[in-house]
User: What shape does this take?
Amino acid sequence: MITTRQNVLSNIPATVRLRIRDITSTHEAELELDATLRVGAVAQTAASRMSLPADTSWALRDDTTAAFLDDDAAIGDAVGTSGDTVVFLTATPRAHLGGGRSAG
Amino acid sequence: MTLTALHRDALAASPEAFGDDWSLAIGLRKTADGRTLLEEPVTEADLAEARSEAWLNGFLRQGHPDLPLEAVTTRIAPLFTDDRCIGFALRAERPPTTEAGATPSVHTFGVTCLAPVAQRASARLLADGRLTEDDTYIYELHARTGPTAPEPSQEHAGIKITTRTAPLRFATRPLGPLVAAARPVGEITDGVLSVVFTEAAHEKSRLFARRGAGGTPPVETGSILLGELCACPDSGELFVTVDDAIEVVDAEQQEFSLIPSSRSWTRIQGVLDRLTGTDTTSTHRLVGQSHGHNFGLEGEPCALCATATECGRTTVFVSAADRTFMRTVFAGQPFALCWIAGTNARAEEVASLFTLRAGVLQARGYHVVESFPATDSPQTT
Assistant: This one.
């Protein structure tokens, strides 16, 4: 019989496994973590450990669906998978290009 | 709100200065003789670009393109003239256990490379009412012995994490013949990282950056640049080539900003994954971005307009947002390119390439060739 560990208080798995890369595929992290952690906290931790600027806000993007994960969601809910499957994500800075209003 | 940096050109740091731990901070004042309103610590993150630039110029461009950033250690020392701290120096060295051949190198940085720290401090002062949007301020560098301020911890319990940084992949290509056959764009400065576009990539960069100029109102548009890092077997130089540009589509295009969406990034990464998964293009990487500051300049032409050969009032400059984009998307990649198109006060189209120099994205010249000859086998550190 195959069983999956579940958090008794919710339907999300107890742990999830992630592989996170940055946009340029220069830095990569493998994580195994408590599925109840918030996406935003996971993004900041991963970015910090991947030597990405920790003073920036980072979002996680699902490489399969191309959708950004909700910062406030539990990571287990957001990726919607069991603890055995590795989910591929990309750490994306909340940054944009642009000249603002003051020209040089 | 405007700012002024109190500094002069950086001087050489004495070797003894590297023996101590130093911490830096940016002090803000409203006037040159006013009291310091706030002292903002310079953190490790604030120094990351300077450290990676020391790695680039001290090792990658000195015949050691295979040395990873993580292998380089840096020591910091403030630069003083009279009693004023006018910048800092980084001494970069590789561990003694690695092979001989790369000597420690010293790289100097002026106060202006810490302008983002001053902007962070000014934001705090704005928030608590000690500065207003109409105020000007002056910032200066303070140095004292002690360790550099750490980042606030981002760690959370319950996460088991392992990380790795991909080896720096590069092609081998002689630089001399490439430059000899190229046309220069802008002023080529000795000692600055060489950058070579193909004509096709150069035109695509321009086209995508200026595509939004025709809108009502004009909007910002742009591209991500694709190319390679190349090591010259003759000179030991490392340089950047650009052979394609991927338009940033499905983005939020506004008059003053370009915000890539999840679909924009997915498309760009898809192109990159296909290239790096193919033997003949496996050394390709995202080498930078191009975008257009397509908004017009306000006001009448200045008094010099009738007589000056060139108009220096342009929309082409590196904004705070551009800088943040570069240091986050291209973190640890001091060779990344920031190419910006726009217009001057005469409504003429202008453009510049900016790369990191002394910790600041500075305008510089580059070369354009018809095409690149085939390279030797890709190299990986």
Notes: The first strand of chain A starts at residue 15 and ends at 22.
